[in-house]
């Protein structure tokens, strides 16, 4: 039987719109949800000769965007309430998934990410299956990858020092909850989740762009510092301490965590990348007087604009590089190369929100990108005329500061399609724009982020 695999990730369904009617905490707004439902409805039905499988490789929903904000909602009643609220506000997507597994007899594989950890809890898994209805549905939530033939698929967050889930601790939480026992000790907070909840969510109410720019994680620290967010230093210290307490180091050759349970017995420190350190150093420069400030209002608008300009100017090249489809950070390249050495021919990640296609050894690496909105800086930032570049960047910063995002915020949903023959040999594999089914290119991504290409 031939196999058609369609892989998407990072839907980030959830969050409430702003009071002014803009997207607010919805980084996958209703218009994109409609595109997603149309995409799912357009998948071919399974037949006797062909199996159609949709893999949603993590961050299906976004508990971090649901109020009351928490880095992890361990109370199942509260987590269920958040899940049901997400479903209520994103119904077209769930209805299309029900049609896919019911009417089209398609196979659906769901994978856990780092923004939807709560989906692994016992009552949440039951609610998820109830919502999807009868059909071929499987949910992979215990740190396994999904594999078929020579294809390896996973979310990708386990290689990310900020967002790798300690699955040993999560198994303990599920074990306790399944027996109606109190959760003790608490599930450890992920540094990336703390950054979102304690720093970025507070800023997002006033600055809607904060989680749409790339790169994220430590890259968000200088932007947050520029806007006057409290807690930047605290989050960084927490990240460093967390790595020493909970995580083992990563193998320098393979990029794999040395302790597969993600929990280190002796507290050996996790690697902290030079890029992360550079972003934090920049954040420290932008904190006024070198002191941590506790509320946004302590900085004048003029001071925040100037600091934001400085942050954007220093991050510009990294921002543009992020959208090159053949560029990937070292933390992901090493495990991809290791997977290739083990015989995997196609390796698929999500997590970064950046669509990729890159040959590594004998393996083709694909990143499925995201269905959350993205943003770009203006082209003029990189031109030779320094004065024009500075003017363009100032204008961009002014728009960000005033939440005039229509010229910059874009929906750029992408998906991977992998075709395998009857012997499970790879016949075809690539990543496509969902709007027109064109194969991704770096120029195509940039044109779409500029609004020069619209959906077909």
Short structural summary:
This protein is of the alpha/beta class and 456 residues long. Helix content is 37%, strand content 14%. The strands form 3 sheets. The chain has a 6-stranded mixed beta sheet, covered by helices on one side.
Count of beta strands:
13
Q: How would a textbook summarize the main sheet?
A: 6 strands, mixed
Count of individual helical segments: 13
What percentage of the residues does DSSP assign to strands (E)?
5-15%
- Average pLDDT figure: 87
Return Rg in Å: 21 Å
User: Residue ranges: pLDDT <50 for 5 or more in a row?
Assistant: 246-250, 260-270, 290-297
- The separation of the N and C termini measures 32 Å
The level of helicity is 25-40%
Helix and strand sequence: EHEHHEHEEEHHHHHHHEEEEHEEEH
Shape: globular
Structural summary, described in words:
The protein is of the alpha/beta class and 456 residues long. The chain is built from 13 helices and 13 strands. It has helices at residues 30-41, 76-89, 91-102, 122-132, 167-178, 191-204, 220-226, 232-245, 274-286, 301-322, 330-341, 386-401, 442-449, and strands at residues 2-8, 50-57, 107-111, 136-140, 146-148, 151-153, 346-349, 356-360, 363-367, 374-375, 409-410, 414-420, 426-433. A 6-stranded mixed beta sheet has the order 4-3-2-1-12-13, covered by helices on one side. Helix 7 packs antiparallel against helix 10.
Element layout with pairings:
Layout: E1 2-8, H1 30-41, E2 50-57, H2 76-89, H3 91-102, E3 107-111, H4 122-132, E4 136-140, E5 146-148, E6 151-153, H5 167-178, H6 191-204, H7 220-226, H8 232-245, H9 274-286, H10 301-322, H11 330-341, E7 346-349, E8 356-360, E9 363-367, E10 374-375, H12 386-401, E11 409-410, E12 414-420, E13 426-433, H13 442-449
Parallel strand pairs: 1-2, 2-3, 3-4, 6-7, 7-9
Antiparallel strand pairs: 1-12, 5-6, 8-9, 10-11, 12-13
Helix pairs in contact: 1-3, 2-4, 6-8, 7-9, 7-10, 10-12
């Amino acid at each position: 039987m031939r196999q058609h695999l369609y892989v998407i990730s990072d839907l980030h369904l959830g969050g409430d719109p702003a009071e002014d009617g803009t997207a607010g905490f919805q980084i996958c707004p209703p218009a994109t949800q409609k595109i997603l439902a149309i995409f799912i409805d357009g998948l071919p039905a399974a037949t006797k000769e062909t199996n159609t499988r949709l893999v949603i490789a993590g961050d299906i929903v976004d508990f971090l965007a649901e109020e009351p904000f928490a880095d992890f909602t361990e109370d199942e009643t509260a987590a269920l309430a958040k899940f049901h609220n997400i479903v209520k506000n994103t119904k077209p997507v769930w209805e299309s998934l029900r049609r896919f597994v019911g009417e089209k007899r398609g196979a659906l594989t769901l994978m856990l990410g780092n923004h939807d950890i709560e989906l692994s809890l016992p009552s949440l898994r039951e609610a998820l299956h109830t919502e999807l209805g009868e059909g071929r549905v499987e949910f992979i939530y215990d740190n396994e990858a999904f594999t078929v033939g020579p294809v390896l698929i996973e979310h990708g967050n386990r290689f990310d020092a900020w967002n790798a889930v300690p699955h040993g601790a999560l198994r303990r939480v599920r074990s306790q909850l399944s027996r109606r026992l109190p959760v003790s000790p608490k599930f450890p907070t992920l540094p990336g989740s703390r950054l979102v909840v304690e720093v970025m969510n507070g800023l997002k109410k006033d600055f809607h762009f904060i989680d749409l720019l790339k790169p994220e994680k430590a890259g968000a620290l200088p932007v947050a510092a520029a806007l006057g967010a409290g807690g930047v230093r605290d989050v960084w210290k927490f990240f460093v301490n967390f790595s020493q307490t909970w995580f083992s180091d990563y193998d320098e050759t393979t990029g794999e965590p040395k302790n597969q349970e993600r929990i280190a017995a002796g507290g050996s420190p996790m690697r902290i990348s030079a890029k992360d350190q550079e972003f934090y150093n920049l954040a420290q420069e932008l904190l006024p007087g070198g002191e941590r400030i506790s509320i946004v209002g302590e900085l004048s608008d003029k001071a925040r604009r100037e600091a934001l300009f400085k942050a954007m100017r220093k991050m510009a090249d990294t921002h543009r590089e992020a959208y090159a489809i053949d560029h990937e950070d070292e933390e992901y390249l090493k495990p991809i190369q290791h997977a290739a050495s083990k015989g995997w021919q196609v390796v698929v990640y999500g997590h970064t929100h950046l669509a990729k296609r890159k040959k590594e050894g004998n393996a083709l690496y694909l990143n499925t990108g995201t269905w959350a909105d993205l943003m770009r800086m203006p082209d003029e930032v990189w031109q030779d005329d320094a004065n024009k570049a500075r003017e363009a960047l100032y204008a961009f910063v002014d728009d960000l500061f005033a939440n005039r995002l229509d010229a910059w915020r874009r929906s750029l949903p992408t998906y991977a399609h992998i075709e395998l023959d009857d012997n499970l040999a790879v016949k075809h594999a690539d990543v496509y724009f969902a709007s027109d089914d064109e194969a991704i290119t770096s120029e195509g991504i940039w044109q779409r982020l500029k609004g020069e290409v619209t959906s077909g």
